[in-house]
Design brief:
Helix 6 runs antiparallel to helix 7 and helix 10 packs antiparallel against helix 16. The chain has two domains: about 140 residues, no CATH class; about 210 residues, no CATH class. The chain is built from 20 helices and two strands. By secondary structure, the chain is mainly α. It has a two-stranded antiparallel ribbon with strand order 1-2. This is Transmembrane protein 135 N-terminal domain-containing protein.
């Protein structure tokens, strides 16, 4: 009760005392005589307020950077190596554990996985990237003067740390480079109009509110074209993932959709293979019955296996305090988000199947452009998903779509004119320079937290 009384009734008395002190100080300042020292303080204060280039000598900012701080850069790189190596090794062990049998020497296999060059090179790539970034920034501050907020220093350090991609395996470099390049474009395109009136005028004439959905449609046009009619343009793992998501088989899709397009000859008639109906190889039921059943039942169940861990794992690991404070509210939100994601993926594959079945049974023919149109129309399913997750889905599919386009250009012989030796490392360095020199407000909270976790809080 004593605390309650002091909080309620003592508040006014404390306010009165503070106000009295302020009045006394104000009165003292008001009656102070005008002296040269007071004028000098006033002029200095006005200079700080009026001159944006005025830099106050904050504690530590005026001190010159010492090369002895390079030891901290080495420690940061070593920490990043341990984290990246541990994450890669844990993932490899987790995937390999599904293949180990009862008679397999699991311990020996685990030790071999931990000592694999692929795992060590990935950890070394991340470690060198973080360490070289901090080392370059320290050297620049030592040579050019200490300026922790210099975007030029961070851009140069980002470009240098991008060269660390040489440490990683050559087979993984294009994927990493393309992924980071798309992320960089996302950051710059979304905020480019802030500094350009010309770009703002262009945005006013374009449907920018649907830019995410449009990019998603174009990317998936390439992906579904490759899945339906040219699977060699996709990686084997991603192709199998799409087939599993649609409850399809390679033989069924190949026999139904690709035979005439490929020019297969019927061995019985010695002529071009006739048009193949959707049943029974593409699906067993009628088209409408299969799509309705797959959309409302099988598609939702398969999607739930994918999205329940995606949504509930962050809730348990990172939002457990909120979960304890409001268990019903947080659980309800997560369940609703999971249902929206399941509806998105189930609708996605249903739209693709519906268009493919409709056009080919109407025209009694298969055309490669049909796969592209089906992929474009699949973007309608994105409206089922939470708007906050649409950009992430678009960026993921954009990387896959660009992979398909690049593989297609290589097959047509066009890529040889665009090929640049170590171009993957060049674009990775360019992307890292742009990303690490961008202001914090341009990043999503998740990306900003991840970058600061790897590079340190002073990186951005």
């Amino acid at each position: 009760m004593e605390r309650v009384y002091s909080a309620v009734f003592g508040e006014e008395a404390q306010k009165a005392a503070v106000q009295q002190d302020i009045l006394v100080l104000h009165e003292e300042d008001f009656v102070r005589p005008l002296t040269p020292e007071l004028l000098e303080q006033h002029n200095l204060h006005m200079q700080k307020l009026g001159d944006p280039s005025f830099i106050d000598d904050a504690p530590g900012q005026g001190e010159r950077t010492k090369l002895s701080e390079l030891g901290g850069a080495f420690k940061a790189g070593l920490r990043a190596f341990v984290l990246a190596y541990g994450a890669k090794a844990f993932t490899a062990l987790l995937l390999a554990s599904r293949k180990w049998g009862m008679n397999t020497h699991s311990l020996a296999d685990a030790l071999r996985l931990l000592a694999q060059a692929d795992t060590l090179r990935f950890g070394g790539c991340v470690g060198v990237m973080v360490g070289s970034f901090h080392a370059t920034e320290i050297i620049l501050n030592y040579v050019r003067g200490n300026d922790p907020n210099s975007r030029l220093h961070k851009a140069i350090a980002g470009a240098v740390c991008g060269l660390s991609l040489f440490v990683d395996t050559p087979s993984r470099r294009p994927i990493i480079s393309l992924y980071i390049f798309v992320r960089m474009l996302d950051i710059y395109v979304r905020h480019a109009s802030e500094s350009s009136e010309f770009l703002r005028a262009i945005e006013a004439k374009l449907p920018m509110q649907y830019a995410t959905e449009i990019c998603f449609a174009l990317a998936n046009g390439a992906i579904i074209y490759a899945t339906a009619y040219n699977p060699t343009l996709l990686s084997k793992g991603y192709y199998n993932f799409i087939l599993n998501a649609g409850r399809l088989t390679h033989h069924g899709v190949d026999y139904t959709l690709r035979r005439r397009l490929r020019g297969d000859i019927d061995p019985f008639t010695n002529q071009l293979a006739t048009f193949t109906p959707c049943q029974p190889h593409f699906h067993r039921e009628s088209c409408l019955a299969h799509i309705a059943k797959d959309w409302l039942k099988d598609g939702m169940l398969w999607s739930a296996k994918l999205y329940i861990p995606v949504h509930f794992t962050p809730l348990v690991l990172f939002k457990w305090r909120k979960l304890l404070d409001a268990p019903l509210s947080m659980t309800g939100r997560t369940i609703f988000a999971t249902l929206r994601s399941c509806a998105f993926l189930s609708t996605y594959q249903a739209v693709v199947k519906l268009f493919l079945c409709t056009y080919r049974n109407t025209l009694q023919e298969d055309y490669a452009i049909g796969g592209f149109i089906a992929g474009v129309l699949s973007a309608l399913s994105l409206f089922c998903e939470d708007p906050k997750r649409r950009t992430e889905l678009m960026l993921y599919t954009a990387v896959r779509g660009l992979e398909v386009v690049w593989a297609y250009l290589k097959r047509k012989g066009v890529a040889q004119y665009l090929r640049l030796k170590h171009g993957d490392v060049f674009f990775f360095s360019l992307s890292m320079a742009c990303i690490l020199s961008s202001p914090p407000r341009h990043f999503k909270p998740t990306y900003l937290s991840l970058i600061r976790f790897m590079f340190g809080p002073s990186a951005i």
